[in-house]
Amino acid sequence: MGKSSLPKAPVGKDAHTLMVQGTASDAGKTTLVAGLCRLYARSGTAKIAPFKPQNMALNSAVTIDGGEIGRAQALQAAACFQSPHTDFNPVLLKPASNTAAQVIFQGKALTQLEAASFFGKNRGEYKSRAMEVVLDSWQRLKSQYQLIFVEGAGSPAEINLREGDIANMGFAEEVDCPVILVADIDKGGVFAQLVGTLELLSDSERERVKGFVINRFRGDISLLQSGLEWLEERTGKPVIGVLPYLEDLRLDAEDAVNTASTDSSGANFKVQVLVHPRISNHTDFDALRLNPHIDFSYLNTSVSAQGASAADLMIIPGSKSVRDDLRTLINNGWGEHIRRHLRYGGKVIGICGGYQMLGLEVDDPAGVEGEAGVTDGLELLSLITELKPQKQVHNVEGTLRLGGHEYPVKGYEIHCGHSHKLRPVDSPLTWQRAVIEDAGSAIHRGDGLLVDDGMISEDNQIFGTYLHGLFDSPEATAALLQWAGMSENIHALDMDELREQELDRLADTLAEHLDINLLNAILDGSDTIKTEAAS
């Protein structure tokens, strides 16, 4: 293992594929794939793409071809120096309740299905169609890239989900690709995780696993050595590497809300973000969460607002189920908490679904998010929202106008709602929707369309917008924080720059702790280590 071994392009004309599966959710699959993508991409020897057959997440990103994919695959695309594309994540499931999810095939929302349609006795029709979509995207990537790093989902050993699997071994068997298995030692029981997973695989699947990666190790590696030797002897498979626990690795979360924050013990400005049961795109707030000058916290709207602390700025984020999450917020006292916050001079920002909640009502006549009907809003902005089946999905760039100044912004729209203002008011934002590319040629939908967006209340205390990624623009973030009452002139984080730094840090760690010779051999289709001369 070590930096003397360099990544190299696979031999042959056909694209080579390596799949990373995990012993459980949150074992480190997303991070390992992102690191491998950056490690091999920066060597400049191959054109590389990420791939995840099926993802279930509420954090999504807009692609260059005008669709949605999981946020993690957009991160992995950045690691490859590629723009996100719908083929990188052909099946995305966005949970709408505990038993239903919106189905997105190749970036386009199709329908909402109950869990039984995915995992129950009648799942065959969905699985068959989903596999067709997955293989269609994978075949296209094979013709365009030399190396594809694939991320599995959850664990391949979920025996109740094995039939018709498209996310793990079902895909690996279909395309005949090698697999490496990653496990999280920080949770304990890493040897049981790895051996137990292998035991629950079929003979052909077990043979497909070419090695192990142990993730998030703390301490003296020599104390682990005897266990590694036992594992290799017990399974007949090599340990490709043991990765250290990386403190404060600041990369986009795949789905779960990341509550870790930078030390802000000296910060005087307090920002709170409400967490809905179906919060979406909470990565919107990473630039605030990671800023040491901000005392940042998340507040769970599923519990009572009684006793909630005061803040300078309160943010209502987006939601996959706006009306349900709005009712939860109001029923648990958060509506009154927001009004009290405003009475004491606090500021409020609503983004996407949060913007809709601030209005007079949210109307869903077509049942886009569930049962058709109308739900009263917080009645803090004079607008009404109607949810429509046609989802707006666009990358955008434009301008924020605030306090007599203009600031550049970029981000994306993902929403089904159309909000209508009930009084004439200037919009604080104007942006241009990006050209949508399809097979290298522009589609005119969205080409050059200018959009005026958002609303500021008459008392200048409430700001609403459909723009996701608002706080990823440093100048706009600094202006919004000053609008919200922050007296200190802080340096807002540049999330694109930070992401690049962290991807390189991750790749450096992999280069140091993985057996790159063995990885190269696996990619070339050999199970034996090939010694490469260091260049």
UniProtKB/TrEMBL annotation:
Domain of life: Bacteria
Pathway annotation: Cofactor biosynthesis; adenosylcobalamin biosynthesis
Gene3D superfamilies, alphabetized: 3.40.50.880, P-loop containing nucleotide triphosphate hydrolases (3.40.50.300)
Database matches in InterPro entries: Class_I_gatase-like (IPR029062), CobQ/CobB/MinD/ParA_Nub-bd_dom (IPR002586), CobQ_GATase1 (IPR033949), CobQ_N (IPR047045), CobQ_synth (IPR004459), GATase_3 (IPR011698), P-loop_NTPase (IPR027417)
Keywords: Cobalamin biosynthesis, Glutamine amidotransferase
CobB/CobQ-like glutamine amidotransferase domain: residues covered: 270-475
Domain CobQ/CobB/MinD/ParA nucleotide binding: 18-252
Annotated catalytic residues: C352 (nucleophile), H468
UniProt-listed PROSITE patterns: GATASE_COBBQ (PS51274)
Family assignment from sequence similarity: Belongs to the CobB/CobQ family. CobQ subfamily.
HAMAP family: CobQ (MF_00028)
NCBIfam families: cobQ, PRK00784.1
Protein name: Cobyric acid synthase
Organism: Shewanella submarina
Encoding gene (name): cobQ
